[in-house]
From TrEMBL:
One of its GO terms (cellular component) is endoplasmic reticulum membrane. Keywords: Oxidoreductase. Belongs to the HMG-CoA reductase family. SUPFAM superfamilies: NAD-binding domain of HMG-CoA reductase, Substrate-binding domain of HMG-CoA reductase. This is Putative 3-hydroxy-3-methylglutaryl-coenzyme A reductase. One of its GO terms (biological process) is ergosterol biosynthetic process. GO terms for molecular function: hydroxymethylglutaryl-CoA reductase (NADPH) activity. It comes from Colletotrichum sublineola (Sorghum anthracnose fungus).
């Protein structure tokens, strides 16, 4: 399934202009990034520093009850759950590997999975 491509920007970093391609189905996300770039540009230019290189994903799993969300979290955090997640993740790419994964309960039934 193709994902639409939007272009945000112009973003000025160290006095050089960049356009930012964004593959997303959320057009408003591209518009929001463009507004942020405009605000930065009004201030003159951005200064940036890379302190770490990594990837983050954060799906939210909704459950019907807090008890079900808690059981899902307990399995995800177990050795069996960790092994299953690592095997599944590592089977999808020869370039990436799962380094860590955490899960956090929020609200009455939401489980946020961070990796």
């Amino acid at each position: 399934m193709p994902i639409p491509l939007g272009v945000a920007g112009r973003l000025v970093i160290y006095s050089k202009s960049y356009f930012i391609p964004m593959a997303t189905t959320e057009g408003v996300l591209v518009a929001s990034a463009s507004r942020g770039a405009k605000a930065i540009n009004i201030g003159g230019s951005a200064v940036t520093l890379l302190t770490s290189d990594g990837m983050t994903r954060g799906p939210c799993v909704g459950s019907k009850t807090l008890e079900r969300a808690s059981l899902a979290k307990a399995w995800l955090d177990s050795k069996q759950g960790q092994a299953a997640k690592t095997d599944a993740f590592n089977s999808t790419s020869r370039f990436d590997s799962l380094e860590a994964m955490d899960s956090v309960l929020a609200g009455t039934n939401n489980l946020y999975i961070q990796f």
